[in-house]
Each structure stands twice: as structure tokens, then as C-alpha cells.
Amino acid sequence: MELERKPYLVVLDVDSTLIENEVIELLAAKAGSLLEVAAITDRAMRGEMDFAESLRQRVLTLKGLQVSVFEEVQKEITVTFGVQELIARVKGAEGYIGVVSGGFHEILDPLAEALQLDFWKANRLEIIKGELTGHLQGEIVDAEAKAQTLMAWAKETNTPMSQTVAIGDGANDLQMMAVAGISIAFDAKPIVRERADHAIDGRDMHPVLDILSL
């Protein structure tokens, strides 16, 4: 007789994982700093640069953007193929699904609500008089914060760590993948693939369903 599988807590990265885009690059395109930001992002994702410092440098290039840019960027976001079915299957099995992002609440909040995620956490941009200042507010969501968030959500939902799943693609996801019971590298950088329990090539989230037997 097969034992009943306990529900999972699945936590995904957002940029290039939950969605096809890098939100900071969409914003940078509006600010005219795309090439500069893309170069910094690449170094950070490869683990060649401290994430918090790289984020500060990239956000600084957004100074002067109007808050109306958020609505423009939201229209450009594409959810990764298979994500909606993954959400439905996890929740259908009485599990929980959330995202933790080095990106921004200003973009993530409406997306997370539309996808009916259980949890989400991201950085906040400082805005004064309807304009981005080029700075952040509050705690920076870096690699350690991602790991701590996964563990906090596991405690909140009474999910054993063995039933937690972390899905990511860059160096900033390694710590949360290390603490999770199951780690999945999604179309990931080599350093992430090497350390993950499973690796998915391509841009399709459906293989996660097989890995988790959902």
C-alpha cells in the first residue's frame, strides 16, 4: 500500500523562473540603462558579485522614473509556461506555493494576487512624490533572506523541511535551495545546476510536476 504523500511548500524565484523576464531590466529599458544593468545582473547571477551591492547599483540607474512605469512594465511580463498548472496542482494537493524575489513588490504584488499565490516577498523601491529615488527601502532580499523566508513559511504552514521545495536559476537562490528538502535548478546557471537535486532544461515548468509526483 502506497503511503499518502504529505503536502509540499514550493518556493520559486521570480525573475527568469516564475516569469520569463528580468524585471530590473524591463525597468532599466525605460530608464535608458539596460546595457549597464544587464552586465551587473549577469555578474551577480554567476556569483561574481555580491547581490546586495549589485542590486543597489542597478536600482541607482532607475532614479527619476515615474511610478507610472510600473503599470507599463506589468504589461510586458510573461508567466513561464507551466507555472499556472504547477500552482493549481500544489494547492490541489493541499500544499502551499510562494515566491521570494530579489525584484520589487511594486511589480510583484498584482502578479502574485492574479496567480493566487499563498506567499510572496520582494524588495521595495523608495518613491518620493511619485518618482523613484534610485534607492531601496527596508531589508534587501538577498540569498540569506530567501533561505530565511523559506524556513519561516515552512514553520508558518507546519510543513516539514523535508517537504519544502526551492526552485531557482541563479547564485542568489543557492542558500534557499540548500535548506530546502528538494532543490530544482530551472534553466539555471552552471553553479546552480551543479548544486541542485534536480535540473530542468528549457523554459517549461511541467517537469516539476513529475519530480514531485503531482
Describe the model:
This protein is an alpha/beta fold. It has one domain (9-211): HAD superfamily/HAD-like (Rossmann fold, 3-Layer(aba) Sandwich). Helix content is 44%, strand content 20%. It has eleven helices and seven strands. The protein has helices spanning 14-18, 23-31, 34-45, 51-60, 69-74, 83-92, 105-115, 143-156, 174-179, 190-195, 207-211; strands at 9-12, 96-104, 119-128, 131-137, 164-168, 182-186, 198-200. A seven-stranded mixed β-sheet has the order 4-3-2-1-5-6-7. α10 links the parallel β6 (182-186) and β7. The longest helix has 14 residues, at 143-156. The radius of gyration is 17 Å and the shape is globular.
What topology does this entry show?
Elements: E1 9-12, H1 14-18, H2 23-31, H3 34-45, H4 51-60, H5 69-74, H6 83-92, E2 96-104, H7 105-115, E3 119-128, E4 131-137, H8 143-156, E5 164-168, H9 174-179, E6 182-186, H10 190-195, E7 198-200, H11 207-211
Parallel strand pairs: 1-2, 1-5, 2-3, 5-6, 6-7
Antiparallel strand pairs: 3-4
Helix pairs in contact: 2-3, 3-4
